[in-house]
Please model this.
Amino acid sequence: MLRQSQFRANQYAVILEPEPDRSAYNVYAPGLPEVHTWSAAIDEALCRAREAIELSLEVRAANGAAPPVGLTDASEVRFLSVEYDSRVAEARSVSRRC
Model:
């Protein structure tokens, strides 16, 4: 069982870019270049972005890297609060909250 003290909470900027016909939304995190996802619905795109950020941070923590920061100009920016297990060992047992 994970203890609450094993988690860190940070906010990361995500950029939402709609397709020209608004059929889908691309989401990426400027501070985490490996994070890019999409969905037809904004809420689902943000949920997928949260999951991608969590995975990215867990991989970075496993490799001894500190969580990055960064932001670029965009038409719409939202911040997601993300919890991740810096020890990674039992990280996937954390339930999905989206």
Summary: The radius of gyration is 14 Å. The domain at 4-90 is CATH 3.30.160.250 (Double Stranded RNA Binding Domain).
